[in-house]
Each structure stands twice: as structure tokens, then as C-alpha cells.
Design brief:
By secondary structure, the chain is an all-alpha fold. The protein has helices at residues 2-5, 20-31, 33-40, 45-57, 63-80, 88-99, 101-112, 117-123, 128-135, 140-148, 152-161, 167-176, 182-201, 208-217, 223-233, 235-244, 256-265, 268-274, 280-289, 292-305, 310-329.
């Protein structure tokens, strides 16, 4: 025990007591990896992040701090888990003998919460789009049950990633949920098990061409040289990259005549949506190409439409760039896919 006293100053140095999160972190570190992992598996996402961040930075934990945390843990345990309350295992065995396994499970689920929740908790670490793509093929009722077992914030992200048509029906079904029958719970658990199984086997998907185009668009210098080198290595890949380089950001490097021609094709209402949250370089380039009166109209429209969903902004930008590419393909404008060096 003496060695612990020689370690660096603890994270709670200078404070009268450890926070509850720090105490939880100390108890978990005292349990060992296997036992701690069993506990972590049952935490909510925010709780897991909070306690693991503290665990990662704890150092020089003094003996009295460890004793305080563990003493508090057992005090709480005695208060909440004494002989006056039966454990779940005790109740399960007793109810199974009295009522049968199926009824016992139903009763226990109503007391302790459905056993599927820990499995659902693992799914909140995947991409909302990944989940949405998979539940999109299910009927609206099972989609609603699925979302009901997810944390609300994450469920909202999954809902937004579902196809726009039918989202309100899914949410309506969530609102109508009161009790979920056993057959539906079994179906949901099978669904979750299938998703967890595919997670273990999936590989990471990377849009290499798109990523390369984004990198080139934002490369500080020598874009032309890099393009020529890539073309020399693989002309076909470079051609695909150039097609993907029609990113909204390239409007920031277009000459004024090109921007004026693009402005003629795109309604001000679309610009008012597309320029929301855009990089300053793009916004400045577009507004500088507008006549003063048009800028005033644009600002009026922008104020009038107010906040816009990110998905809508992304959609309008893609539509504008499709028009830009069509003008370039028709030879009406000369689009600079990357900034070129100039001389006076």
C-alpha cells in the first residue's frame, strides 16, 4: 500500500471529495477488465463516455480516495441491495416454478425493463445512416418499436436518415406504443441480433474518389501539378476524380463572368438556402458577383426563410452543382476545378 502514496497527485487534488463519476471510475478500475466491461456494457452512451474519459485520465490515486470510493459503493449496495429486496435471479427462479418460464419472463421484463435494451445500447455506436438503411425495409410498426428502444437523441438521428416519405407515420406509431407483445419483442430481438452479427462481419466503406476530390479541392497549393501526376499514373481514376470535384466549394475560385452566368441560371431562393452555413470564401465570391440590388433581395429572402434542415441545404447545393456541370459540358462556362497560378 505504501507504493500508492508515492504516485503523482490525484485528479481530485485540492478538492474536499471526489465526484460521483470519479468514484465510479475508481470502483471500475478496481474490478479488473472483465468485470468492469460487464458493467460498462449496461451504461447509457453519455454515461459510458463520461466515466471512460475519467478512467483514462486518472493517475496517482491516493489510498484514501480508493477507500472512500469503495466504501461509498458498498454503503450504496447495502442500502439498495440488502436482504429486504430479492435479486432478479431469485425472482426468476421463483416465478418460473410458480407460473412457468414465459410468464416469469413477461413479469420480470415489466419490473426490470426489457432484456433487449443492452443489445440496443450497442447499436447506438454505429452510424445512424447504417441503421436507417437496414430498418427502412421493415414495416412501420417494427421501425417504431426499434426507435422506441433507442435513446431519444440517437433515435432522432436514425429517423432523419430514413426516407422522408413515411417518417411521420413511424413517429406516429412510436407515440401510439403502450405495450409490446411477446411476438413483436421476439421479432425485434431477432432483428437486433442480425444487425449485431452483420456489424461484426462488415468492413469499412470509403468513398475514395470523393475523398480524393475533396482533398484536391482544398489542397493549399500545387493542385495542377498533383492533377498531372495523378493523370500520368491512372487517367481513368483522374477522370473520375475530376467529375467528383464539382463540389460546392469550387464556386469560391470561379472568375466573376463564370459566377454571373451561373447566377442567371439559379433562382435567388435556391442561393438563400445553399449559402446557409457555407464557408466564407464561397459566400463572399457569390455575393460579390451579384449586383447590389440583387444582394439586398437575397438577404431579404434569406431572413424570411429562416433555419433550413441540413439535408435540404445539401440537396439544393447538389442541384446547383448539377446545373454548373451542365453549363460546363455545354461549353457555356469554363469551370476551374482547382485554382491556377496567375501572373500580372
Amino acid at each position: 500500500m505504501a507504493e500508492l502514496s508515492d504516485l503523482r497527485e490525484p485528479i481530485a487534488s485540492g478538492r474536499a471529495s471526489l465526484s460521483s463519476v470519479e468514484q465510479a471510475a475508481i470502483v471500475l478500475l478496481s474490478m479488473g477488465e472483465e468485470t468492469a466491461s460487464s458493467v460498462l456494457r449496461h451504461l447509457e452512451r453519455d454515461e459510458l463516455l463520461a466515466v471512460t474519459q475519467v478512467m483514462s485520465r486518472l493517475s496517482g490515486i491516493k489510498v484514501d480516495a480508493v477507500q472512500t470510493a469503495i466504501h461509498r459503493f458498498f454503503e450504496d449496495y447495502r442500502e439498495q441491495s440488502g436482504v429486504h429486496g430479492a435479486s432478479r435471479a431469485f425472482l426468476k427462479r421463483s416465478l418460473a416454478l410458480a407460473l412457468g418460464n414465459e410468464i416469469a419472463d413477461s413479469v420480470l421484463n415489466s419490473i426490470y425493463g426489457d432484456a433487449i435494451r443492452p443489445k440496443m445500447a450497442r447499436l447506438q455506436w454505429v452510424s445512424p445512416k447504417w441503421l436507417a438503411d437496414r430498418i427502412a425495409a421493415e414495416h412501420a410498426h417494427i421501425q417504431a418499436v426499434f426507435l422506441a428502444f433507442l435513446p431519444p437523441a440517437f433515435a432522432g438521428q436514425v429517423l432523419e436518415a430514413l426516407p422522408e416519405e413515411g417518417r411521420e407515420l413511424v413517429l406516429l406509431n412510436v407515440a401510439r406504443l403502450k405495450e409490446i407483445d411477446r411476438e413483436l419483442l421476439v421479432e425485434l430481438e431477432e432483428l437486433v441480433d442480425r444487425y449485431l452479427g452483420s456489424l461484426e462481419m462488415q468492413s469499412a466503406n470509403v468513398e475514395g474518389v470523393r475523398q480524393a476530390a475533396d482533398i484536391l479541392n482544398r489542397l493549399p497549393s500545387n493542385r495542377q501539378q498533383m492533377v498531372e501526376l495523378l493523370r500520368a499514373h491512372d487517367p481513368q481514376v483522374m477522370s473520375e476524380i475530376e467529375s467528383s470535384m464539382y463540389d460546392f466549394f469550387i464556386l469560391s475560385r470561379q472568375p466573376e463572368p463564370t459566377l454571373i452566368r451561373i447566377l442567371e441560371e439559379v433562382p435567388l431562393e435556391d442561393w438563400a438556402i445553399a449559402l446557409k452555413g457555407v464557408e466564407p470564401a464561397v459566400r463572399n465570391a457569390v455575393l460579390q458577383a451579384m449586383p447590389r440590388r440583387q444582394v439586398q433581395s437575397f438577404e431579404d429572402i434569406e431572413r424570411r426563410i429562416g433555419p433550413v434542415p441540413v439535408s435540404r441545404v445539401r440537396q439544393v447545393r447538389e442541384e446547383i452543382m448539377a446545373q454548373v456541370k451542365a453549363l460546363a459540358d455545354a461549353g457555356e462556362i469554363d469551370v476551374q476545378l482547382f485554382a491556377e497560378a496567375v501572373v500580372e
